[in-house]
Amino acid sequence: MLLEVKDLRVSYGAIEAVKGISFSVAQDEIVTLVGANGAGKTSILRALSGLADVRGGSILYADRELRGVKPHEIVKRGISHVPEGRLAFLNLSVHENLLLGAYIRNDTKGVEDDLAKVYELFPRLKERARQIAGTLSGGEQQMLVVGRALMSECKLLLLDEPSMGLAPILVAEVFATIERVRRMGTPVLLVEQNANMALSIADRGYVLETGRVTLSGKASDLAQMDEVRAAYLGE
Amino acid sequence: MEHFLQLLIFGVQLGVIYALIAMGYTMVYGIIRLINFAHGDLVMIGAFTAYFAARVPGVGFVPALLAAMLLPAVLSVLIERLAYRPLRGRPRLSVLITAIGVSIFLENLPRVIPFIGPNYRSFPKLIEFREFPLYGSAIVNSIQITNVIASALLLSVMVGIVRFTKSGRAMRAVSFNKDAAALMGIDVDRTISITFFIGAALAGAGGVLYSLTYPMIDILMGVWLGTKAFVAAVLGGIGSLPGAVLGGLLMGIVEVFATALYSELGYGAGFIVLILVLLFRPEGLMGKPTIEKV
Ligand SMILES: Nc1ncnc2c1ncn2[C@@H]1O[C@H](COP(=O)(O)OP(=O)(O)O)[C@@H](O)[C@H]1O
Ligand SMILES: [Mg+2]
Description:
The complex is a heterodimer.
Chain A: E1 3-12, E2 15-25, E3 30-35, H1 41-48, E4 54-61, E5 64-65, H2 71-76, E6 79-82, H3 94-101, H4 108-121, H5 123-127, H6 138-150, E7 156-160, H7 168-183, E8 188-192, H8 195-201, E9 204-209, E10 212-218, H9 219-224, H10 226-232
Helix pairs in contact in A: 3-6, 6-7
Chain B: H1 2-32, H2 39-53, H3 61-84, H4 92-112, E1 121-122, E2 131-135, E3 138-141, H5 142-164, H6 166-176, H7 178-182, H8 188-213, E4 216-217, H9 221-236, H10 241-261, H11 266-280
Antiparallel strand pairs in B: 1-4, 2-3
Helix pairs in contact in B: 1-5, 1-8, 1-9, 1-10, 2-3, 2-8, 2-9, 3-8, 5-6, 5-8, 6-8, 9-10, 9-11, 10-11
């Protein structure tokens, strides 16, 4: 397993948001964590990136413990995290945002090549390369943060609700990009409230409820289960 | 006209010093949203560093200036690490009060150090004083030229770093959102340290240039100077680098003209301008209207 999380606990002061969760991601997999608002999805991803206060458990990535490692060191180990709420650097240009995605890289040539690839993938970003990111529409900002993550040459991509607030056509575009990322050989851990879409592209899934895993298994099986359909697919 | 030109020269001479100091306020505010009350005292420490450095035989203006930039810079990095960093993520008021505490400490520590003490000292003549006729009766002197050239150089280097280098990009990213910056692989702590370092180096330089202009220094010189530079930073729009330069120049020029008009007016004039500007543009001349972040 590339990522092996065991009995993870995350707290905010006295509030325990993640109450002992275990899951794993293998090479070449898309794994999704689905669950309602407040289930603890964002807290889990922030714990993986070293941003949340982990109170218990272990996070093994490529057989090394990530607990206690500083966020920027975790990025250097190959984990790229696209945070919730599409946090593009709105005070920087589109071009500078993409360069920040490659902040840890020193291969100038490779960065230029990847920049060209991202611009090819998202021509809209190329048109707006010199524009300040704050002037982009919500959909364009989402493309920007995904493109930025692609610049990092990561070995594992964490995505926190990439479909949030996007028009259906853009949602489809984002999910197509996620599948393309996996085809290029990068595993993805996808967090979504949009369980329907997430389960349709994932290999395996975990259903979360108030900080615990209630169901897990093959994504296609989960999508068929009555409990999941009732709770998350609005049926 | 000649009189006007002469006053303008004095104003710019003072304004570039305010600009240098204002830059540090604005950079630190930009990156951690802290009004660093101890910043003015770094100006004083810079001036004293140059004062003592110049006693070493063979040390001229440039080495003294560099020493005066380096010591406050290192000190400022230490202050951030020891006093401000442990409070990161806590209520902003806690950090603000800590900054006031640090400032009081820095103003009083030299008082008890035997070779410094509370007395005024005359600052060495690091620049040979010469005057050059400019236009009619207006003249410009070697210190004024030094002030303008040195600050223009330092400010452009600094703005260049922030605008065009990888570290500068990291600073702007951290200033926008620390967590998002960390997720890019940016070492947030180190970036904040670099910001404090550069800001304090400019403050130290400001202290030297001010002391060349008014060659009496004492351990409280940073209090008023810091306050006025802070006003300049707010006037220009705190957080904005061009704003700090504009605010600094404006403060210097307004102060000199007001003093010429009526000598009691000098100190207050900058504040009057500040109030007028903030009435119409609360974000300052070049600041962006911001939404208060949680
Ligand atoms: N910064 C925070 N401070 C306090 N409580 C928080 C914080 N962030 C999240 N929580 C709480 O932790 C729980 C899980 O939140 P979160 O991880 O954001 O869930 P999700 O991403 O699934 O919506 C929620 O009850 C939320 O209120
Ligand atoms: Mg969330």
